[in-house]
Amino acid sequence: MKPDSAEKAAADKSSQKNASVDYQAHVSSIGWQSWAKNGSKAGTTGRSLSMEGLKIKLSSASGGISYQAHVSNIGWQSQVADGALAGTTGRSLGIEAIKISLTGEVASEYDVYYRVHSANLGWLGWARNGEAAGSTGRGLAVQAIEIKLVEKGAAFSGFGFGIQRADSFLFCSCFKYRVAFRFERWRNGGHDRALPCARGSKRQERFNAGWRFRYWPSLCDAFGLAIRSY
User: Fold this and answer.
1) Phi, psi of 217, rounded to the nearest 5 degrees
2) pTM (2 decimals)?
3) Which range (48-52, 91-95, 147-151, 158-162) has the least confidence?
4) What pLDDT score does 112 carry?
5) Burial call 123-144: b when 16+ CB within 10 Å, e when fewer
6) I want to staple 86 with a disulfide (CB 3.0 to 4.6 A). Which of 69, 121, 205, 206 is the partner?
7) What is the maximum span of the chain, computed from C-alpha positions, in angstroms?
């Protein structure tokens, strides 16, 4: 590597240490809000106002950020990037789910974490690096979002318990672990139970935990379970 190339690479790596994420929400009955940054809330909670549009961009980073919205009555839109509009404005169509990914050099230095506040569910668990956060097929609009950049290898401070419905799985985030449950009916007694199974590798181990899930019984018919560490 030439000296000037090495210096440029070192400068780029140094600048990544100050990378930040900025995002702006377009909210029903409000319009565009001010930009939020680095884990702060964009959107509203407790007001039953749907988030209809979203723009996301990076600062002080070599690379970009891409994102894709699932919109009421439309479904998954095409992926957009770097400050472009995801969702809609002026059509009263709420965003129901979102996927966010980093691109370029910044993706080798950071993970992007994000969570949404959904109607009737509240704050869901943290998703990361292209996973879907929110819900599809249930008509539940996203009302707020938080997004963070976390250096790879660093401890993520997303502690607490939350539920994240994405695709065919219901994810439960508890401290630094993420658990998703497959719910089935007990034939005898009419109770619901969760059957955990490890996913994400060729070896999938399933076992019957005999654990009764007492909440959202109407959702206990077609979900999967997984556990892995963040």
Assistant:
1) -60, -25
2) 0.69
3) 158-162
4) 97
5) bbbbbbeebbbbbbeeebbbbb
6) 69
7) 73
